[in-house]
Amino acid sequence: MALKQWILSGLLASTCLVSIAAAGPIENYAPVTAERLKNPEPGNWMHYRRTYDGQGYSPLDQINTSNVKNLVPAWTFSTGVVEGHEAPPIVNNGVMFVATPSGQVIALDAKTGDEYWRYKRQLPEDLFQLHPTNRGVGLWEDKLYLATTDDHLVALDAKTGKVVWDTKVQDYKKGQYLTLMPLVVDGKVIVGGSGGELGVRGYVVAYDANTGKELWRTFTIPGAGEPGNETWKGDDWKTGGGSAWMTGNYDPDTRTVYWGTGNAAPWPGDTHPGDNLYTSSVLALDPDSGKLKTYFQYHQNDSWDWDEVDAPMLVDLQRDGRTIKSLIHPGRNAIFWVLERKPDSIKYVAGWPFVHTDVWKGIEPESGKPIVDPAHKPIIGKRVEFCPSLWGGKDWPSAAYSQKTGLVYVPANENFCGGFTGEKVPLVAGQLWLGTKPEDIGLTPRPGATHFGELQAWDPATGKKAWSHNFPKSHLFGSVTATAGDLIFVGGTNDRMFRAFHAKTGELLWEQKTNSGIMGMPVAYEVDGTQYIAIQSGWGVDAQRIQDALVGKVPGLENNVPQGGVVWVFAVKK
């Protein structure tokens, strides 16, 4: 499929649906409090990455290296829609909430898979969805919060699925949309917008969880007279991108939200001269006011579409003989970042390439600013090649940190390069504004490459790779989850497999073929003393686009990955 075709294929997912309640209601629902969100019970999964720190780690160990080979499906549930299923199943005391493409939320019995109710959003017929997906629902008290691709934030009654309030965030007709799981902090529902490829100005915004009233809005690109605006030329900041389309992480001790931001727009750097704050950065925000406390920019004047929206993990790291309150971020720009978070600053500690890159000559030791090789930086009027490709060393799928091994597990893509010819074109609201023709974008395997996807294990204290597992016929495009059972769970490949690895050695211990490719996030939960592992299978969006771009370039590449979403839940066979 041509690249232009698969970009436009997002339109197919904007089917008009109606909001309905099915079999519910849910009896004895456990209200979600601030304390439960700060210290979630081991058997629940109530955040995007289970805890505010974003580590993607479960303390459950009933399923472990000795018995994972006996993992079998406990139940499955078809979502009824196609496209990329990217949300973690959210579990609160035996109730599972599943968000899918097309603005759907399904409430299920987490033990049996029986449906309680189903909400289907009515999406506009003229909606253009560049990324027709959703990454989960936020929880607070007796409500759920869904961010929609037609740029609304919706509160649902957790027991019935009925709409409590519905707030317009911005205008989808101008290229604004939402795909993330909302972050809920002390009764504030915080979201960030997508749309960087359509010439928007990025933002993070908070709403009152009970009323839907907007409380604050912080733009990721500073306006005229604001600190950082001097890093833009003229009015470039008004359409400069900087989308914030992934869920942030939160430090309750310092009351600081850490949020990743996307690339500058359009792609070629000479269309927006300057460092372009605060694109491709992590922002430290006050959750009460939205005030920017501090920031760290991963790379300046982004020219490669290297979003850095995957929020860094908060880890108390033992390094160089001291404990560092760290931020750990394997970046799309191919650099594994270790930063130190302080109340009023974010300091560079270390960084190293975790996949091959020809873009960076090095990193300035004090500032952490990467040193660019101009030969591999896209510009107007010339085709420029660079490694890794525009999908980066790791795209939005999340890495995980194991509190048992002290290792970070990265769903990486190695041996991919790309390129494009930059062009200057006028912005038309609601239309793609890439700075290149879609059909001009290239994705090329490096000569002599023997594999592409890599599940990597890194020691962030030393910068050494502990192990890696290579995938010769597939990229790796799925989030990673670690458990106290010394297991690493991940999908992400086009062979439809869901896998478990030994966290210490990288040995493949178990695999199960599913209905489709897996882009979603594995979760671990417990009901009535039994531990389960859950995942959504459903291929699409960028994982599908990478695959389509590689057809004919990789011998033996599996190109026929069936569509359709299914929730898979596994338990140890008794």
Automatic annotation (TrEMBL):
Cofactor: pyrroloquinoline quinone; Ca(2+)
Ranges where the Pyrrolo-quinoline quinone repeat domain occurs: 45-342, 474-533
Pfam families: PQQ (PF01011)
SUPFAM superfamilies: Quinoprotein alcohol dehydrogenase-like
Binding site for Ca(2+): 197, 263, 305
GO molecular function, one term: oxidoreductase activity, acting on CH-OH group of donors
Cofactor, free-text remark: Binds 1 PQQ group per subunit. Binds 1 Ca(2+) ion per subunit.
Matches recorded under InterPro entries: ADHI (IPR034119), PQQ_b-propeller_rpt (IPR018391), PQQ_MeOH/EtOH_DH (IPR017512), PQQ_rpt_dom (IPR002372), Quinoprotein_ADH-like_sf (IPR011047)
Record keywords: Calcium, Metal-binding, Oxidoreductase, PQQ, Signal
Secretion signal, residue range per the UniProt entry: 1-23
Active site: 305 (proton acceptor)
Residues holding pyrroloquinoline quinone: 86, 135, 179
Source organism, top-level taxon: Bacteria
Keyword field contains Oxidoreductase: yes
Cross-referenced NCBIfam families: PQQ_enz_alc_DH
Stated family: Belongs to the bacterial PQQ dehydrogenase family.
UniProt name for this protein: Alcohol dehydrogenase
Organism: Bradyrhizobium lablabi
